Amino acid sequence: MTWLTWRQFRAQALTATAALAAFAAVLVVLGLKLRDRYDEVVAGCAARHSCATARDAFLGQYDTLVFLVSAVLLAVPVVIGIFWGAPLVTRELEAGTHRLVWSQSVTRTRWLAVKLAVPALAAVVFTGAFSLLLTWAASPYDEVDGNRFAVLSFGSRNITPPAYAVFAFVLATLVGLLVRRTLPAMAVALAVLVAVQVAVPFLVRPQLREPVTTTEALSAQTAEDGRVDLGGKQVQILDFVIAGAWVLDSGHTLLDAAGKPVRTDQVKSCMTGDRARDVACLAGKNLHFEVTYQPAGRYWSFQWTEFAGYAVAAGALAAFGLVWIRRPIL
C-alpha cells in the first residue's frame, strides 16, 4: 500500500523537489547578499552616528524581495492543500478505483491512513526545508527590521510553516472526502485555508498571551522609534516600535502630565520644521503615551503554541476522516 501511494504521489514529489531546489538557489544568493550589504551599511553605523539612515537604506533595498519570498512560503501550505490534499480522495472516488482497492485485503482505514501519511511527511520535509533556508537567508533583514511578529515574518519563519502545511493538507483532504468532487473540493479548501490564514494572525495570535501595557515618555529616542502626527484634533504617535516586540496598536494618543489627550493646537508652537528642535520642544512638555504589546521574549512560545495548535487540529481532522471513510455510503 505504501509503495502504491508513493507511485501515485511521485509526480508531485518530484515537482516539489525541483521547486525547492530553485528556491534554495534564490535564497542562498539572497542570504549572501544580505550579509554582505549588512556588513557594508549597518555594521558599525553606531560609530558613524548614522544607524537610522543605514537601517532605512538596508531595509529599503531588500524589502520587496524579502516580502516576495516570504509571501511565497506563506502560500505554499495553501498550494499543498489544494493540489495535494483536495484531489487525494476525490480522484479515486471520481474514477471508481477506490472500489478495487477496498475489495482487496486493505481496509478503508489503512488505505486512507497511508495516503495521508506519505504526502504529509513530504509536506513537512518540503516546507521545513524552505522555512529553514528562508529563516537563515533573511536573518540579517529580520535583525534590522526588528519585527519578527509581523504576519509575513512570523508565518514564514522557523517551525510554524511545516505544521500549517500538514494542517492544510489534511483539511483539504477531508474537504475532498466530504465533497467528493475535485474542483468543488479545491474551491472550498482554498476558501477555508485563506480564512484561517487571515483569522489566526489577526484574531487568534494576539490573544495567545495577555499583552503588556506600558507608558512611554516622549523623548528624542521614542520620537525616533515612532512618528509624531499632527493631522487630527489630537496628537498621535504612529508606527511606534519596540525592538523585537509586537506592538498591537499602530497609533497612540499623546497624553499630558494629567493623562489628558494633547490637542494639536497645544503643541503647534513646537512645530518649526527642524525635527531635533521640535522633538526637544515636545519632550520638555512632559508628555507620554501608552503602548500595548507582546514582548520579544514571547516569540518562541507563540511559535510553539501555533505549531501545537496546527498539529492537534491536523490530528483531529485526520481522526475524523478515518472514522468517516468507514461509512457505507462510500
Structure description:
The protein has helices at 2-42, 45-48, 51-95, 97-102, 108-137, 139-145, 151-155, 160-179, 182-204, 220-224, 264-267, 275-283, 299-324, and strands at 212-217, 227-229, 236-238, 246-247, 251-253, 288-294. With 330 residues, it is mainly alpha-helical. The chain folds into 2 domains: 2-208 and 299-324, no CATH class; 212-296, no CATH class. The strands form 2 sheets. It has a 3-stranded antiparallel β-sheet with strand order 1-6-4, with no helix packed on it. It starts with a helix and ends in a 6-residue tail after the last helix. The model has no long low-confidence stretch (mean pLDDT 87).
Q: In terms of topology, how is this protein built?
A:
Elements: H1 2-42, H2 45-48, H3 51-95, H4 97-102, H5 108-137, H6 139-145, H7 151-155, H8 160-179, H9 182-204, E1 212-217, H10 220-224, E2 227-229, E3 236-238, E4 246-247, E5 251-253, H11 264-267, H12 275-283, E6 288-294, H13 299-324
Antiparallel strand pairs: 1-6, 2-3, 3-5, 4-6
Helix pairs in contact: 1-3, 1-5, 1-6, 3-5, 3-8, 3-9, 5-8, 5-13, 8-9, 8-13
